[in-house]
Each structure stands twice: as structure tokens, then as C-alpha cells.
Amino acid sequence: MDFSVSDFNVRLRTIRLREFAVALVAALIITLLLDVLFPIMDVYDDLLVVSLVLCLLVFFVWALRNTDGLKRDINALFEPETSREILYVLIINLLFAFIYVSIGASFDIVLTVFDPTWIPSLDLSPVYYGDSIIYFLMLFTSIICAPLIEELSFRGVLFNRLKIRIGILPAMLLSSVFFAVGHEFGGIISAFVFGMCMCVLYLKTDNIFVPMAVHFLNNLLICIMEYFNMESFLFGTPSAFLMLVLSVVSGVLIIIYLIREIPKLSA
Questions:
Q1: pLDDT tens digit sequence for 66-114
Q2: What's the pTM?
Q3: Top-confidence residue, 29 or 108
């Protein structure tokens, strides 16, 4: 990384893969040590994720210290054109992320009609989160820390360094694959597509806070839906079929968006 660079987004682009790899290994070692010292981390696996994320956050705070341009970059989020694109990309990706659950819920409804003894494959019952402090840490990590760390890591470092070596489109694809594999099985495809869209937004604006904003809103809305158990309504009868249609349409809109934008950015 080049500490002589004062602009936040430009300094971010100077962080090398090996520097980030060292930080990641250090974060993993610290997390493992905490796991040994505090047995409660074995009970709540999410605490391991919290520890890893917070360690990486410390690295980025150190790497990007004494930079300027933050106020300008954050204010840019509220420019009309940027705000509209943030909301558009957020909505189509959020709806597309439901495609796996929508398909499963629709199949369950249809099969139940023909076979009343059919046991639904999806469990839409409320989720019990246990200890309130642990739940708060999970929310803080999911809504605040994850968008910060994942965008800085996958777009700010990995995508930036890969595009120098292998070109923009291959860098988009590869960084999005790495981003996707860290998600649950049912969400790998939607996470990959989300990663591609975040690369497009980042390239278009040269502002890491734009994909961060989409990521933040996406995680916030998902957490709200989980807390109020909205899945039981959205994927029940008959709304599951509507959600399936919206998910498919959103998938098509995402493809159109990527086909339209990527050639402009690769030129």
C-alpha cells in the first residue's frame, strides 16, 4: 500500500494482495486463539465470524488512515443519478436472491395440492436467536461490518488487483466467484450475480461507498425480514408464485443490466 496517497479510494487501490493475505492470515490466527481462550465461541459459531471481520476491519482502518475525500465520496451517494442506480440494483438483486426459496416454496405448494401428506422441504418457521447480546453482535456484523469488509476486500482489493493482471471482465468473474463461495449453498448464484453488479457500480463511480451502500441496504432489509418472519408470508400460498415471477423477472433485468454496462466499462 502507498501511504503517500491521501485520497481514500486511490489509497484503497494501492493495497496489494500479499498485504491483504498477511492481514487475513493474522485475523484467522487471532480468531483461533480467541476460540481456544473463550469456549463460548464454540457454542456460538457466529462469534468466530464476528472476530474475523473485526480483525480485518482493524487492518483496513490502519491501511486507510489519514486519507481524505470521505465526505465527498459519501455525499456522492445522494446525487440523483447515483441514488436511482443504487435503488435499482438493490431491488433487482434482492428479489433475485429469493429465487431459490421461491422455487422451493412453489414446488411445496403444488405438491401439497396433489399429495396432502407431502412434508414441505422449506422450513419457514420463526428463527430463535438465543442470547440477545449475541444476536446484537450478529446484527452489527451483518448490517455494518460485513458490507464494509466484503466490499473493501472483494472489490477494493481483490477486484482492483486482479483487473491489473487479467483484465476487467475476468477480474469481475473471479472476484465474484470468491465472494460467492463464502455464502450458503442456496445463495451462491445470487451472491455471484450480486458481486458482478457491485463490480459494475464500483467501476462506474470509482467510489467504494456506492457498492457498500447497496450491500448495507441489502443486508438491513434481509435482517428485518428475518426478524419479523416475513418469509412465512412472502413464500406462503399464493404469494410464493408471485415472488417466483418477480425473482425470474429480476434475474432477466440483472442480465440486461450487466450486458449493457460491462462493455462500456471494458472499452
A1: 999 999 999 999 999 999 999 999 999 999 999 888 888 888 888 877 8
A2: 0.91
A3: 29
Question: Residue type at 203?
Answer: L
Provide CB contacts within 8 A for 263, sequence distance 6+.
none
Burial annotation 134-150 (CB, 10 A radius, 16+ → b, else e): beebbbebbbebbbbbb
CA distances from 175 to 86, 153, 159, 195 (A): 20, 10, 6, 8
User: Hey, what's the cell of 249?
Assistant: 423477472
CA distances from 239 to 91, 104, 120, 158 (A): 18, 13, 16, 39
Residue 165 corresponds to which cell in the numbers above? 493482471
CA 177, 51, 20, 163 torsion-angle sign: positive
Q: What is the pLDDT of residue 90?
A: 97
Q: Average pLDDT of 151-180? A: 95
Residue 6 DSSP label: -
Q: What is the dihedral of CA 199, 205, 211, 213, to 10 degrees?
A: -170
Neighbours of 43 (CB within 10 A): 11
Identify whether the C-beta of residue 194 lies closer than 8 Å to the C-beta of residue 218: yes
Q: Strand, coil or helix: what is 68?
A: strand
Alpha helices in the chain, H assignment, sequence order = 8-13, 17-37, 40-43, 46-63, 70-75, 80-96, 99-114, 132-140, 146-150, 160-166, 168-181, 188-205, 209-227, 231-234, 239-266
DSSP 8-state class, residue 230: T
The three grid cell numbers given for residue 37, joined into one nine-digit string: 481462550
pLDDT in tens, 191-232: 999 999 999 999 999 999 999 999 999 999 999 988 888 877
- Burial label for 39, CB within 10 Å (0-12, 13-18, 19+), is exposed
